[in-house]
Amino acid sequence: MVRNLMKKGYQVSVYNRTKERAQELIDEGAEWRESVKDCVREQDIVITIVGYPKDVEEVYFGGNGILENASPEAYLIDMTTTSPKLAVKIYEEAKKRGMKALDAPVTGGDSGAKAGTLTILVGGEKEDFEACRAVFEAMGSKICYEGKAGNGQHTKMCNQIAIAGAISGACEALAYAKAVGLDVNVMMDSISSGAAGSAQLSNVASRILKDDLEPGFFLKHFIKDMSLASEEADEAGVSLGVLKYVLSMYQELDKRGMGDLGTQALISYYPYFEEKKEN
Length: 279
Prior knowledge:
The structure is a single chain. By secondary structure, the protein is mainly alpha-helical. 54% of the residues lie in helices and 11% in strands. The chain has 15 helices and 8 strands. The strands form 3 sheets. A 3-stranded parallel beta sheet has the order 3-4-5. The protein has a 3-stranded mixed beta sheet with strand order 6-7-8. A two-stranded parallel sheet has the order 1-2. The longest helix is centred in the middle third of the chain and has 29 residues, at 151-179.
């Protein structure tokens, strides 16, 4: 995402807890800063994308955080998938200081981030969204205004809810095909272009069939997203049985030490599939 901003001519200052992970970007022209505080000073736009809600809290609040140190009237854009309530909290605190805050989580995975084809889901004031549109377009190909502060995060919850069902459906189709003796590749070719076809079916199954469980998106981060969605659904009085069951499966895999694998590692929840694959 930083590379794509630089390709569009933006001068980007960067901070990361581990400098080594930003070294390639520094070598390519990004300006390194030693702290969050130093990174956000005198910037027109501040973009954050971190791991968990607690990380968002850490970088935005407190004496060394963004809200205390960013320029007045700066645009603050959090692209982390995080709590809608936290997005509203940041928006309200920013507004008190004359700053503008947008919640803008993304979908499209690591491949979309590299290619600049992310879908970006934005909540906040419409005029602030329009002011930052060119920045979003540097990183994504589908830029969606979702409404008031927090709505970007709520829309991302919908995305993750839909993905949870789609990934589990793809894994169960593979497990069933293997159990009844089908050629799994032929089965996939047969159903992927019909009514059952989906990005998750194609992407998840293709990686599984190559024994590739490496992360395009970390299993542990998907647990975080589904947990947030489950909490929000409970508060809204909506019963999401599929989401809760898929979340419980992923939590079991995380207990087995699989949190750093990709979301397609859900196939490991099905022992019969694994037994047949070994044979």
